[in-house]
Design brief:
heterodimer, A: about 325 residues, alpha/beta, Rossmann fold, five-stranded parallel β-sheet, about 45% helix, about 10% strand, B: about 325 residues, seven-stranded mixed β-sheet, 11 helices, 14 strands, about 40% helix, globular, THDP-binding (chain B), oxidoreductase (chain B), Transketolase-like_Pyr-bd (chain B), Transketolase_C (chain B), Alpha-ketoacid dehydrogenase subunit beta (chain B)
Chain lengths: ~325, ~325
């Protein structure tokens, strides 16, 4: 049971962020399908925006985030520039990663976002290591690592979580459960009771939250962040949501019932749910509409600017490989 | 100048680096008790359990966690125990560590040393004996080094710890006990080979323990009136093309010798480079020595079937000289 009534301003910010993420990804999908400007795969998180907005609302700029191949929302919510992100998706100069990473490797170290990852589950051990360094250096940042439900069947899930518990690291593992592992239903390929139960078996505190309820996620995360900042042990948060698109923007998702996504949208769209909460708490329809329109306008503009940006200079293909034995001097 | 074993030279390098730089720390299985080969002995007592950190038998987590820690301001020394076990952390090394700086457009660095003791070690069989240096040389983003002497295991490890790139540091576990004088003031420059023995008749290029065998071979050849030059490459990426090309220009004869499997080995890269740049100056056929493409056995006689020996290097040198144009 949640209500924005107790914190109207937070509720507005959460909706605003979800609207921005949705608008960004809608434009990214248009850029891919309509404009043929996104040449590689993109993995939209449409329908999953509540996790990004609710979690990042409670993180500081210096806190560390690691994410997945489906990480646009997390990155935007952590504070990355929408324009730099769109340029990255289009492989352009001025992209977050200079056009070298694309959607799957989006990162913005200036806002503590240490990278999406093209390998499922790979960030779990890396995130544990970031938390390990924070402990060694004696500073008080916290680390959040988001992975999907498919990742819990990879080895790094066990190795990284065990590591975090053994070394008592300031990290929150979030399983953003959208119910699909690429194009297969995760439940059909997963033994036992899933992420939370596995975390509990390692002695880790584990919380389950409605992954489409942004207010509940923000409340839960506020409590977890406070515990971690006070030196608490690592925790896991299981947020069940739903992936409305296919695995990639090009995947028609014919492997699931035709009406499954539309039914989910009707019942559980996190943006619609938050609008209803804010309306009930007294926000005007006009203001809610303006949040939507502002987000749309921002992202339409961002796509236009990104489209007008040149591709990176050819020689950057050889830059930032390594200092010693760099291809800039060793190229044949 | 102290006389140190190959093992203790590495230990001194870690100790000296950790004294100088508080962000250097070591992580791996059994480090607290000194490491499986004793190469961390006494460091726990000096630096404590946070900086000489034990780890669960979780190679992927050791490698991945060290990488995460490297990206935010520490300099981890990762101990993989045996190079064979590092294969459990291949994604972390190849897909993550080697690629991060490039993939993120230069936003990150991974200043870390990945120690992987490699090579034949009596009767350790197929999963504790491999030399896979050529694999790593194939991966953009990695520096790959193979020290073969106590001096190099000091100077090269100091340089690797100070390096901002990830360095795959391949010590040979068959030579932990060899001793030599170590000058702590001697600096190593990546990509600079060492001429272990000067000569004018034939060039022998090698690295790691096989470079020691090449020096023995050169001594035997000198008894036969053959003056061999031995080049210890020391690092495979980058590797010292100039030293090899200059030597071959002088001798006109090339032997490349390594312990790892010959097929697809780094020796092929050296031979191809010499063929491209100086093939017209060769006076005899190139000889390339490496292990047959078979697996290391447990039984000592079978193990020896895969071993490149100093006698084989002598024979190879004689062959290229006999078949001179």
């Amino acid at each position: 049971m949640t209500s924005a009534g107790h914190n109207f301003e937070r509720g507005r910010l959460l909706l605003e962020m979800m609207e921005r993420i949705r608008a960004f990804e809608e434009q990214a999908c248009l850029a891919a399908e309509r404009d043929k400007l996104v040449l590689g795969a993109i993995h939209p998180s449409i329908g999953q925006e509540a996790v990004a907005a609710g979690i990042m609302h409670n993180l500081l700029k210096d806190d560390i985030l690691l994410s997945t191949h489906r990480g646009h929302g997390h990155t935007l919510a952590k504070g990355a520039s929408s324009l730099a992100m769109m340029r990255e998706l289009l492989g352009r100069e001025g992209g977050c990663c200079g056009g070298k990473g694309g959607s799957m490797h989006i990162a913005d170290f200036d806002v503590g976002m240490l990278g999406a990852n093209g390998v499922v589950g790979a960030n779990i051990t890396i995130a544990a290591g970031a938390a390990h360094a924070i402990k060694l250096l004696g500073d008080n940042r916290i680390v959040v690592d988001i992975f999907g439900d498919g990742a819990i069947n990879r080895g790094p899930f066990l190795e990284g979580m065990n590591w975090a518990v053994v070394f008592k690291l300031p990290i929150l593992f979030i399983c953003e459960d959208n119910q699909y592992s690429a194009t297969t239903r995760t439940s059909s390929m997963t033994a036992g009771d899933g992420a939370a139960a596995r975390a509990v078996s390692l002695g880790m505190q584990s919380t389950t939250v409605d992954g489409n309820d942004v207010e509940a996620i923000a409340d839960t995360m506020a409590d977890i962040a406070a515990r971690l900042r006070a030196g608490g042990p690592p925790e896991l948060l299981h947020a069940k949501t739903y992936r409305r698109t296919g695995h990639t923007s090009f995947d028609p998702a014919t492997y699931r019932p035709a009406n499954e996504a539309t039914e989910e949208e009707k019942k559980n769209d996190p943006i619609k749910r938050q609008r209803a909460i804010l309306l009930a708490a007294g926000m005007s329809e006009a203001e809610i509409q303006s949040l939507h329109e502002n987000a749309q306008k921002e992202m339409i503009d961002v796509l236009k600017k990104a489209t007008d940006t040149p591709f990176p200079a050819n020689e950057t293909a050889f830059q930032d490989v390594q200092d010693i034995g760099s291809p800039m001097v060793e190229a044949y | 100048m102290p006389k140190l074993s190959y093992r203790d030279a590495s230990l001194a390098a870690v100790q000296h680096s950790m004294r100088e730089d508080q962000t250097v720390w070591c992580v791996g299985e059994d480090l607290g008790r000194g490491g499986v080969f004793g190469q961390y002995k006494g460091l726990r007592e000096e630096f404590g359990e946070e900086r000489i950190s034990d780890a669960p038998i979780s190679e992927a987590a050791i490698m991945g966690a060290a990488f995460g820690a490297a990206m935010i301001g520490t300099r981890p020394i990762v101990e993989m125990r045996f190079s064979d076990f590092a294969l459990c952390a291949t994604d972390e090394l190849v897909n993550q560590i080697a690629k991060a700086r490039f993939m993120f457009g230069g936003q990150s660095r991974a200043p870390m040393v990945i120690r992987k003791p490699m090579g034949l070690w009596r009767s350790s069989a197929a999963q504790h004996s491999q030399s896979l240096e050529s694999w790593y040389a194939h991966i953009p983003g990695l520096v790959v080094v193979c020290p073969g002497t106590p001096q190099d295991n000091y100077s090269m490890l100091m340089a690797a710890i100070a390096c901002d790139d990830p360095v795959v540091y391949l010590e040979h576990k068959g030579i932990w006990d060899i001793e030599g004088e170590v000058d702590f003031s001697k600096k190593y420059e990546f990509g600079k080979a060492k001429i272990r023995r000067e000569g004018s008749d034939v060039t022998i290029v090698s690295w790691s323990n096989t470079a020691n065998l090449a020096v023995e071979a050169a001594e035997a050849l000198s008894g036969q009136g053959v003056n061999a030059e031995v080049i210890d490459l020391r690092s495979l990426w980058p590797w010292d093309k100039e030293a090899v090309l200059q030597s071959v220009a002088k001798t006109g004869h090339l032997v490349v010798a390594h312990e790892s499997v010959a097929v697809g080995g780094f020796g092929a890269e050296i031979v191809a480079t010499v063929a491209e740049k100086a093939g017209h100056t060769l006076k005899g056929p190139v000889r390339r020595l490496g292990a047959p493409r078979s697996l290391v056995s447990y039984a000592p006689n079978l193990e020896d079937m895969l071993r490149v020996t100093s006698e084989m290097i002598v024979t190879a040198a004689q062959e290229t000289l006999e078949k001179a144009n």
